[in-house]
Request: fold
Amino acid sequence: MVDEPLRKGEQTQARILDAAFALFMEQGYHGTSMRQIVERAGITMGGVYNHFASKEEIWKAVFFERHPYHAILPVLREAEGATAADYVRDAARRLVGELNKQQDLLHIMFIELVEFNGAHIPQLYERIAPQLPQLSAVLSAKAGALRAIPLPLLARSFLGYFFSFYITEALMPPAVRSLMGDASFDDFVDIYLHGILAAPGAGSEE
Amino acid sequence: MVDEPLRKGEQTQARILDAAFALFMEQGYHGTSMRQIVERAGITMGGVYNHFASKEEIWKAVFFERHPYHAILPVLREAEGATAADYVRDAARRLVGELNKQQDLLHIMFIELVEFNGAHIPQLYERIAPQLPQLSAVLSAKAGALRAIPLPLLARSFLGYFFSFYITEALMPPAVRSLMGDASFDDFVDIYLHGILAAPGAGSEE
DNA sequence: AAAATCATAGCGAACGTTCGCTTTTTTATT
DNA sequence: AATAAAAAAGCGAACGTTCGCTATGATTTT
Reply:
């Protein structure tokens, strides 16, 4: 029922999205042409418009399908830990694992910001809005042992801190990165944990 | 000697860079055409090539001239404070003031990442490399009262944490931002200060 | 047979750049 | 200070190419 064999057109559509995604990540939106997309997808110019009405519709399909919240929300929901510290640490580890698996998770948001001025972000949030209450319930239950930090601020700083690890990495060329010590993510996260945990000695290492 | 009146061509060149910068920030690099640039600069198509050899040369001039380190390095150098906590707090305030004044400071880096894959970043670091030793000397002198955090990691997490405030802001549409509580930057920074300060009660408020 | 899918060829518009040529500004010489 | 030569700056039109997109008709999938 769910896994009936894909109709022919759906396979092509998926190939178009795969090709477009890869090219957008490499070259950005305006730097990628429809001809590059169809060539990579193995079809011709005319064919693509049976599946998408325009180039921007392709971007929207890619953007809504592969935005980072698809990965972030489940991670925050599935993370476990007896104490708040353990929970945050587990969530951090899972999240960084996911971001390592898909380095493009954040890049797609940057493209949206740079080339569309974030015009599609409101629509993105409409789609993930239904999941937000459950998420905030999970976090509330876990946040007891943390410093008295408002939950929205906590969530925002948590996500932002993760983003920043990858952004600073992207902004540093290899030469500088080695000069900067090639910080491990665990060390990076540890600073944040000290920031949000109530007990000063709550960090497990050192 | 230094302030002899600008030659005519230099004024035009400055107008071109101003126009290009504004347009790149609004539309990205590939989303901006040479015709838009020359129109905004008040010249014609042929004229611009007396000053820049190509569109990419315009981008490089903009990028190297207005990248965020121009603002960040002086801030970290000029920040003051008797204790490490005071110093970091002062630096944080100055930096956020600078970032508020020029919201595009980070955006220009995103354009470079999205549309050039960071191809010009190595050249950027070559230009700012001479200033790095002085900076790290300043930070070393101030870092005594902090937790035992390697200096490169400290610098990276500090910058990253600032970036994250603006990135999460850009990624949240107004509706969600109000739902998230419209966090003040002071609260945001406070979390980070707790993370890097040795004494748990070192924060001055609360 | 009907519907969906695809290839071919081509549209007009916009792209970055270059071309001669004119005008303005700077420099050098009186 | 006036003048002539040189250099710099500006113009508008056109270049060849590529852009996103769309007719139309053939072919394949349901």
